[in-house]
Design a protein that fits this description.
Layout: E1 4-10, H1 20-27, H2 31-49, E2 57-61, H3 72-85, H4 87-90, E3 94-98, E4 100-101, H5 115-122, E5 128-129, E6 138-146, H6 150-161, E7 168-176, H7 185-190, H8 200-204, H9 213-220, H10 227-231, H11 236-248, H12 258-269
Parallel strand pairs: 1-7, 2-3, 2-6, 6-7
Antiparallel strand pairs: 4-5
Length: 277
């Protein structure tokens, strides 16, 4: 068993110690909220385990992804930046940010599934470290929420497969701390502030908005009639980035995404000065 730390623990859904609305906005691209979460996670981790870091190199990982970053990447980047800024004070040898790649993508909304369904969905995925892992480096695996632990089990399996003996910490902003809580609480949190297409413009226009896996998949599964509402709030640069990221995750090859992908690509072709590959 590896140590697991979280800033917030959910013991009862009716007694949350964080803003469900903020969490939902974060999941749909509000990078400023993710940065704040990462700073809070850094402070909590250092208060609990800071002394264990001295004279070690530390490697920070976000949750695994292929091409499009998950929302949790902003938490991981923020924690990494805070470690870098305090490297000398903490007595660290070095701080590195690295990545675990995954090859499989799926259209199901992970947050709506129970433990068994989550595990079935990801068990055949292929997780790989992108960089060599050096002995004695402290490995920090960062995610936004721990609900059933299925993703953590997959990373633990990767650690075993690679025969790593490094010190490891799993760090979460939120962790469900009661077996009595329905895993679909994650779905309710994800949609707390985003219940339809009309909730997207305020997110897309926010100065700290960044595309992530969730919002791209959400847009690609919208009813086609809703797409004009989204597209009129995307700048040409955002539209080009959307298509580039969707191509990078091969969403253009997934049948469920193809109608909206082609509609958006056709729209992009009509935007002056925009090159839609």
């Amino acid at each position: 068993m590896y140590p697991k730390l979280s800033v917030h623990q959910i013991k009862e859904e009716a007694a949350l110690t964080f803003s469900a609305s903020d969490y939902s906005l974060f999941k749909y691209g509000r990078a400023d909220i993710g940065s704040r979460y990462g700073a809070a996670l850094y402070a909590h981790f250092i208060a609990e385990q800071g002394a264990a870091l001295a004279k070690h190199s530390v490697v920070v990982f976000a949750s695994p992804y292929h091409h499009i970053v998950p929302a949790s990447a902003e938490i991981a980047h923020s924690l990494f930046r805070n470690l870098q800024a305090n490297e000398a004070r903490l007595g660290l040898k070095s701080v590195q940010y690295s990545k675990i790649t995954r090859q499989t993508t799926y259209i199901e909304d992970y947050g709506s599934l129970n433990f068994e369904a989550r595990l079935r969905l990801i068990k055949d995925d292929n997780y790989q470290f992108t960089d060599p892992i050096h002995p004695n480096d402290i490995l920090l695996f960062v995610d936004d929420i721990h609900v059933t632990g299925s993703h953590q089990l997959m990373i633990e399996e990767l650690i075993r497969r690679e025969q790593l003996t490094n010190p490891v910490f799993f760090l979460y902003y939120i962790a469900v701390d009661s077996a009595a809580i329905d895993p679909q609480i994650e779905n309710r949190l994800n949609f707390a502030a985003v219940q339809g297409v009309d909730d997207l413009p305020g997110i897309l226009r926010h100065p700290d908005f960044c595309f992530n896996t969730r919002i791209i998949k959400y847009i690609l599964r919208l009813p086609k009639s809703a797409l004009p509402t989204v597209l009129k709030h995307l700048t040409p640069q955002q539209l080009q980035e959307f298509l580039r990221l969707a191509d990078g995750n091969h969403y253009d090859m997934i049948a469920a995404y193809q109608p909206n992908y082609q509609f958006i690509k056709s729209h992009a072709a009509q935007v002056p000065g925009l090159i839609a590959n």
